[in-house]
């Protein structure tokens, strides 16, 4: 039985899906090294993944496919939801950033676009956006 089938709660199921995708991305080049595992443990904490769920996802035989949304809006929605979770502690370090960038590429963004989107998202979620961007966002409000 897939691990996601064990959970009814929508938010937790989404978090588990995000985590499974991150674990799959980390394992793309073979083994997950200790540094990658430490980063995944940080993400597991932020995503409220239990120790049992962590162990299940990390099993070598459990490789979860990355579900690439077909529309650009859905890709941005996934990243937005993910950033909301990541910034629950108001912090993202360089290693987490690299994994998030891989996640964005896995969602279907080009590597260059993924890097730019992650940079802008970090600025937005940390409140360090330039006035021009803030003003443009405010002008678009409905």
Automatic annotation (TrEMBL):
<feature type="domain" description="Co-chaperone DjlA N-terminal">
    <location>
        <begin position="16"/>
        <end position="114"/>
    </location>
</feature>
<dbReference type="InterPro" id="IPR007791">
    <property type="entry name" value="DjlA_N"/>
</dbReference>
<dbReference type="InterPro" id="IPR029024">
    <property type="entry name" value="TerB-like"/>
</dbReference>
<protein>
    <submittedName>
        <fullName>TerB family tellurite resistance protein</fullName>
    </submittedName>
</protein>
<dbReference type="Pfam" id="PF05099">
    <property type="entry name" value="TerB"/>
</dbReference>
């Amino acid at each position: 039985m897939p691990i996601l089938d064990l959970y009814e709660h929508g938010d937790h199921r989404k978090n588990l899906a995000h985590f499974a995708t991150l674990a799959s991305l980390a394992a793309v080049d073979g083994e997950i090294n200790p540094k990658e595992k430490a980063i995944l443990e940080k993400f597991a904490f932020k995503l409220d993944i239990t120790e049992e769920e962590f162990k299940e996802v990390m099993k070598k035989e459990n490789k979860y496919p990355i579900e690439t949304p077909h529309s650009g809006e859905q890709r941005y929605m996934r990243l937005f939801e993910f950033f909301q979770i990541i910034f629950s502690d108001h912090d993202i370090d360089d290693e987490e950033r690299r994994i998030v960038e891989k996640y964005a590429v896995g969602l279907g963004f080009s590597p260059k676009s993924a890097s730019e989107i992650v940079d802008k998202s970090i600025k937005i979620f940390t409140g360090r956006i330039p006035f021009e961007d803030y003003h443009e966002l405010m002008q678009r409000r409905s």
